[in-house]
Write a structure and sequence with these properties.
The protein is globular, with a radius of gyration of 17 Å. 32% of the residues lie in helices and 19% in strands. It has one domain (3-218): Isochorismatase-like (Rossmann fold). A six-stranded parallel sheet has the order 5-4-3-8-9-10, sandwiched between helices. Strands 1-2 form a two-stranded antiparallel ribbon. A two-stranded antiparallel ribbon has the order 6-7. The longest helix has 18 residues, at 45-62. The chain has helices at 35-38, 45-62, 90-99, 140-147, 159-172, 191-199, 209-215, and strands at 3-5, 8-10, 26-31, 66-71, 118-123, 134-135, 138-139, 151-156, 176-180, 205-207.
Length: 219
């Protein structure tokens, strides 16, 4: 049985499809749902966060580990690499995080509910790909390889930043990548739709949360 969404192929017999591997070989990434980013969603916030939470709950039900990946916003702890373009602007962001530390926290609606299956990782400011996130001294990429993970489902803010960077980096590392379209958002008008229609599908499966859950009913 196969199921083809607008920009995704869901078929257990296709080795490039997320359905070709088991739930235990699949993880869900929740990337940068920090309050400073959520504040840019405007009226879209309830819907985007609601879909991300639904995907988290569904992934846990299916037996998929969930990784919460965020930028390390602790003032004075980490800095962007010296030659990173963001380094010149980071002081401005640091001042915001000093004044309101909660801006760097993950949205409450996505707070981990199952410590045995959910893990929070941080990455250096200015680094876009969530694969560079770390838990202690272990990089996410290395942990995924050691666990035998083959497929990643990506949800995050914003589409043109961490989502695109993570999706492309993960493909380059040999992972099957699925972007959950309605769990992502970009504040630039029209950009999210353009990326999901014309850019991300070059290397990733792109589908809505509902399409993904329907497709996975065969497993």
């Amino acid at each position: 049985m196969s199921y083809v969404a607008a920009r995704a192929v869901f078929s257990p017999t296709d080795s490039t499809s997320p359905l070709s591997v088991s739930p235990s070989e699949t993880i869900l990434l929740l990337i940068d749902y920090q309050n400073i980013a959520v504040g840019r969603l405007g009226d879209a916030a309830p819907s985007v966060l609601g879909v991300a939470r639904q995907m988290r709950d569904w992934a846990l039900f299916k037996g998929m580990p969930v990784y919460h990946c965020m930028v390390d916003t602790r003032p004075g702890i980490t800095q962007p690499p010296a030659r990173n373009k963001l380094s010149a602007k980071w002081r401005m962001y640091e001042d915001k995080f000093v004044a309101v530390p909660g801006l760097g926290f993950e949205a409450d609606v996505l707070a981990p509910v199952d410590p045995g299956w959910e893990k929070t990782l941080l990455r250096t400011p200015g680094i876009m790909s969530a694969l560079e996130s770390q838990h202690g001294s272990t990089r996410l990429t290395d942990e995924l390889v050691s666990r035998g993970v083959k497929s990643l489902m990506v949800c995050g803010l914003v589409t043109s930043g961490c989502v695109l960077s993570t999706a492309r980096a993960a493909t380059d590392q040999g992972f099957i990548v699925t972007v959950v379209e309605d769990a992502c958002f970009d504040p630039v008008p029209g950009l999210h739709g353009m990326l999901c229609a014309h850019v991300l599908p070059m290397t990733a499966h792109v589908a809505t949360a509902g399409e993904i859950r329907d497709a996975w009913k065969v497993l």
